[in-house]
Task: inverse folding
């Protein structure tokens, strides 16, 4: 499929679509470091610009528009979230572009917290807005751990199929299960995900393999909870101040924070995926990303579509 990607960030969702064999024609994000990361790994087809300033005429025709629209206003991690948060309006830019290009499909990704904001009224409004564009719309919360990501990251995936397109999108079946029941693989543990990475304090040539020295203090708060090495990591977040690392997950050994490379592995990025920018920026790019393995599972379903 020919793909247009909005709010692309460092390219996690796009990498998943590329792994599934799709062709990404055009991408967009406003965060310069993330755009540089994207160019470094996925190509020069990304435009660094505010999406609200982009004319749909400058975007190529495509089969599908994808976008993990910015979620900070919706996230349960943001305790100050409210309906009027201006960042909640960014999904309307996704709607504007979909309405102008009318692709066969769209796919929007966001935090699970979006589904219960204002007792679900905001989510109902968003689904209604998408439906009114002329699409059959469905949504489902998926757990990245069920698709081989070493992280219990839950995200709502909204899929739209244009009304005149004869295709029923079926969400991908899990490949993994917590205890490996039902013939599925066990969830991938965080220790397993990090097993091939050397100690970042020893000489190595692994890109982005450096970590925040921000003090570890296990007090029960986000980013200050010990990890069970035999389970997937909790959700990687993008919160923190400009010094970086305030809520970066601790390493399972409990001695330090995870390095950027280790955190990227927890997000299922390949080890040769290089991130641009300072350490704080890299942490944020990784925290904001869609895990590529989750993106691949979602994208692979579209390969079942055969145009008549």
Result:
């Amino acid at each position: 499929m020919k793909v247009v990607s909005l709010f692309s960030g460092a390219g996690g969702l796009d990498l998943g679509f590329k792994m599934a064999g799709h062709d990404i024609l055009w991408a967009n994000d406003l965060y310069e470091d993330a755009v540089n990361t994207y160019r470094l790994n996925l190509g020069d087809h990304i435009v660094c610009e505010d999406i609200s300033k982009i004319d749909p005429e400058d975007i190529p025709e495509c089969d599908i528009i994808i976008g993990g629209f910015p979620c900070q206003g919706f996230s349960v991690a943001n305790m100050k979230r409210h309906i009027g948060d201006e960042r909640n309006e960014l999904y309307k830019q996704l709607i504007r572009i979909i309405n102008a290009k009318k692709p066969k499909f769209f796919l929007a990704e966001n935090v699970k917290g979006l589904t219960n904001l204002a007792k679900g009224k905001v989510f109902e409004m968003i689904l209604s807005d998408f439906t009114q564009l002329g699409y059959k719309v469905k949504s489902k919360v998926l757990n990245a751990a069920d698709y081989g990501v070493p992280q219990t990251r839950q995200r709502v995936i909204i899929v739209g199929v244009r009304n005149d397109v004869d295709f029923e999108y079926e969400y991908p079946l899990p490949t993994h299960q917590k205890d490996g029941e039902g013939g599925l693989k066990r969830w991938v543990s965080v220790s397993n995900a990090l097993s091939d990475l050397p100690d970042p304090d020893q000489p190595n040539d692994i890109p982005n393999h450096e970590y925040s020295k921000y003090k570890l203090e296990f007090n029960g708060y986000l980013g200050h909870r010990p990890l069970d090495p035999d389970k997937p990591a909790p959700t990687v977040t993008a919160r923190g101040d400009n010094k970086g690392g305030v809520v970066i997950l601790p390493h399972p050994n409990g001695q330090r924070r995870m390095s950027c490379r280790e955190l990227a592995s927890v997000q299922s990025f390949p080890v040769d995926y290089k991130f641009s920018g300072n350490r704080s920026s890299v942490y944020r790019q990784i925290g904001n990303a869609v895990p590529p393995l989750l993106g691949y599972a979602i994208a692979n379903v579209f390969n079942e579509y055969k145009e008549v």
